[in-house]
TrEMBL record:
This protein's record includes keyword DNA damage: no
Ranges annotated as spanning the membrane: 33-50
Domain Sporulation stage II protein D amidase enhancer LytB N-terminal per the UniProt entry, residue ranges: 170-270
Protein name per UniProt: Amidase enhancer
Entry superkingdom: Bacteria
Keyword Transmembrane helix: yes
Keywords assigned: Membrane, Transmembrane, Transmembrane helix
Cited Pfam families: SpoIID (PF08486)
GO biological process: sporulation resulting in formation of a cellular spore
Amino acid sequence: MPSGFWNGRQSDFNPLFVFTTRKIRMTNGRGRAFLFLAVVAGLTYAFWPADRRAAQKMQRPPLLQLAPVQSVGSGRLSSIRVNLTPSPVTSLPIQIDGAYRIQPVGNPRVLAEAAKLAATSVTVTKTGFQIGRNHYPVTRLEIHPQQSPAIWINGHQYRGTVRIYRRPGSKLMAVNVLPLEEYVASVVDSEMPAAFPPEARKAQAIVARTYAIYQMGQASRDALFEVYADTRSQKYLGFQYRGAGDRLLAGESASSRKIVDETRGMVCTYAGRLFCTYYSAVCGGHTLQGTELFSDAVPAVAAVPCDFCREAKYYRWDVSLTAAEMEKKVNPAVKGRTGSWGRLVALDNIPPAAPGRLLEFDAKYQQGHGTIRGDRLRTALSSHGVRSPHFRIEHQGKYSLHGRGHGHGVGLCQWGARGQAKIGRGVQQILQYYYPGSEIVIVGNSVARN
Ligand SMILES: [Zn+2]
């Protein structure tokens, strides 16, 4: 789930991704049919009794209201670049099922072609890369398989191509380049269980797509990738992967591909612009105002009450630490602390100004005190099972933490989306609940099919 790490410098919003909703042309047959239906619908609405309309409104979940979309017969599907190696590595396991060719990135020259590549590894040499028995004297290369998916990197098989870049210290970085909608299909299954209701999974697809396109617009011109494949951006497992005991597990499914088809090109906007659709697993009762954690959060990333996630395992949790454990973890994170303050004697909750505000704690020492933010304390204590920045601390010899939620708690609550879908709410209602004032529209470039 997005946690606000940037992979490139923030730049002005890339006009390439300022979308326009497509309008139906009224000159073709489909357009005339649409116009006819619109007139019939309008007349029906006008003459339908208002009280019955109101009653219908109560009974049915609202339909998704979108600007009309023209089906597109040509055009290029946008691609996204996903960093598969969050920290550069010295060696990377690789395998290619089927024919492929290797080219320098952005160069049509073919360096090699082969029918397949048995399991081997990529390493960096003084002048290039070693892949199995072959040496390539370039600093960046791209593997183009004849069919997709084919390339295995580190136990995950990916759709599209894979680029390998040299990084300082004889290290390398792998970047998967694939069509945006294929990426979204994997993110849906990577981020949300298949057992969650379809309307929740549609909401997941739309926020994942919006997040991805937003990051594509934010990446600097010379950035080599737009998103990470893990929770620094959003989880992306690829087409399939080998799990524990070498078991083959799916990274996408017929179900997630269907969800993507049903929401193709749909994104969230606020005041006519795409925004960063932060989301997290379980808010635990109330989401956090986006600006409390992320400087680029728009007003739609608002704090809202949410009890819909109460069936989640981590809706509530408890953790306890000894005084020594707490002191060791807390000391480096307390603002302004010096060694002369002595031992930690208490850690008190500072009452929040309002629900949806980030909690702060007062760390009291023998000779001084300092504040510590809930998110920093969560990071410091994550190895002890602290799962969110929202908790109450009790101190009686040992420290007891009574927490709520899993993740940062900003934006859409994934378990809350499940709860809302289970009581019959539709994707639009779910998204507008977590992002008040937002709209769903279709992004122009993304609806194009090859
Ligand atoms: Zn929730």
